[in-house]
């Protein structure tokens, strides 16, 4: 397995819509393993293929690490599609491996029903709630070219983007006051 480079804001690739996966083959399986390793090393709890510069509808997720001593329970989502979202809402402080060290409270549906293909090409549906539902929505947004900062006010979003644009030009890492422990 190989660690992949995670692209960061303001890279325009993050705004690309990802193409569906047509075929599950050994190359895709290796790529998903590399994505998982990259996500764990970052460390994060979710990673979309576009975050490593590949515009394909592939996501890795593992929220099990939130509990100390728990064993990994990775999910590999190929062509994920959110079928339904609850009317109930929940808020989590989200972060993103492509927007490092920035965190903000985001409100999303509290639960979702997801359809996806697994590593074996088998069609699955799951009902997710809590942090898993949030992570799924965050990663599926990536596949559609949407970032969690798009849920913030225009002013807050513009400030974040400007700091990352400046950092890209100067090489000086942007600083933010908010801190959290996980990034998606």
Automatic annotation (TrEMBL):
Cofactor: Fe(2+)
EC number: 3.5.1.88
GO molecular function, a single term: peptide deformylase activity
Chain coiled-coil ranges: none
Catalytic activity: N-terminal N-formyl-L-methionyl-[peptide] + H2O = N-terminal L-methionyl-[peptide] + formate
Enzyme active site: 139
InterPro entries for this protein: Peptide_deformylase, Peptide_deformylase_sf
Residues annotated for Fe cation binding in this entry: 96, 138, 142
Keyword terms, alphabetized: Hydrolase, Iron, Metal-binding, Protein biosynthesis
Residue ranges crossing the lipid bilayer per the database entry: none
Cofactor note: Binds 1 Fe(2+) ion.
Function as written in the Swiss-Prot or TrEMBL entry: Removes the formyl group from the N-terminal Met of newly synthesized proteins. Requires at least a dipeptide for an efficient rate of reaction. N-terminal L-methionine is a prerequisite for activity but the enzyme has broad specificity at other positions.
Similarity remark: Belongs to the polypeptide deformylase family.
Name recorded for this polypeptide: Peptide deformylase
Organism name: Kaistia dalseonensis
